[in-house]
User: What shape does this take?
Amino acid sequence: MLQLVLGRSGAGKTEWVYERLCALAKAGRQGLLLLVPEQFSFESERALLERLGPRLSGSVQVLSFTRLAEQV
Assistant: This one.
């Protein structure tokens, strides 16, 4: 499912996405994907690791557009 999250700068879009992904991961959902720009991929992986811990963070895959193209 694709869901667009729109809003101005500082409206809490990124926090909402992290909270939603964390809730889904904790509920046992697998195959979660977060698509981010190349320069934001490391920061996103780190933020999810801090929120979910090493065990659950593996259920959310963070991909940049380049990584997505390589996988396809």
The mean pLDDT is 91. The two ends are 18 Å apart (CA to CA). The chain has three helices and two strands.
